[in-house]
Design a protein that fits this description.
- The chain is α/β, with parallel strands linked by helices and about 280 residues long.
- It has a domain at about 105-240: 2-Layer Sandwich (Nucleotidyltransferase, domain 5), CATH 3.30.420.
- The protein is about 40% helix and about 15% strand.
- It contains eight helices and six strands, in the order H-H-H-H-E-E-E-E-H-E-H-E-H-H.
- Strands 1, 2, 3, 4, 5 and 6 form a six-stranded mixed β-sheet that branches.
- A hairpin with a 5-residue loop joins strand 3 (about 135-145) and strand 4.
- Helix 4 packs parallel to helix 8.
- The longest helix has 21 residues, at about 245-265.
- The relative contact order is 0.16.
- Keywords: Membrane, Transmembrane, Transmembrane helix.
- InterPro entries: IS402-like_dom (IPR025161), Transposase_11 (IPR002559).
- This is IS5 family transposase.
- It comes from Kitasatospora cinereorecta.
Amino acid sequence: MSERKAYPSDVSDAQWSLIEPILLAWKAAHPSSSGHSGSYEYREIMNAIFYQNRTGCQWAYLPHDLPPSSATYYYFQIWRKDGTDQAIHDILRAQVRAAAGRAEDPSLVSMDTQSNHAAVNVPAATTGKDANKKVPGRMRGLAVDVIGLIIAVVVVAACVHDNAIGKQLLDKVAQAGTVQTALVDQGFKSSVVDHGADLGIKVEIVKRSPDDVGFVPQAKRWVSEQVNGILMLHRRLVRDYEALPANAESRVYWAITANMSRRLTKESTPTWRGA
């Protein structure tokens, strides 16, 4: 890594040792036709992506001592398009689960949705208004395991019903081949239950007790709420700034990748709340 003062979001040596082998394998599988090895270290590209995720800055506002926005955006896009961002995330997730004494892939997930306001640059064609929460923008759907790790993420217009999001999440969850049960709230209806049955996944609608007042955590289901809180520590995810929903999904994977790398190395990063 080039000599410069580190940012709090930079990957440490220990964290980089987890990610570097994956990107070196990617590089070996994608040799340059011109033989050019690239002007920027992958570690610094990662630092730029993590910096933007944590601070929420625009591409043009990346600090001058990080790789330029053109290079960072190039790798952000190419790694998103070929699935490298999710591959890194999934490999680290398997390691975190193994460290917790669990199988690499879960048998149970909790699914939930969250509405997010969209920035002015987000195309109107990919946004809508959540009729229930009255939020204009996009909807983020998550499927998480019982220890708060993401199994699948879907980003769509906020006007899309939970049922449609639930079906998309189930399609992604089913790819793991190990999930047997999915817990959802009452916003998901019988069509999601039926879709899950078609995929071999039992969808259980966890009903809220009529005696509950305010927010009352539900066993196992509350973890998805916790993950939404973790994502809010990354300012780029507080509002949807991405022109493409797929980019917004990639942002989630990078955020949790940063979180899991710290979990595995038992390190921490100061939050902007305490800055």
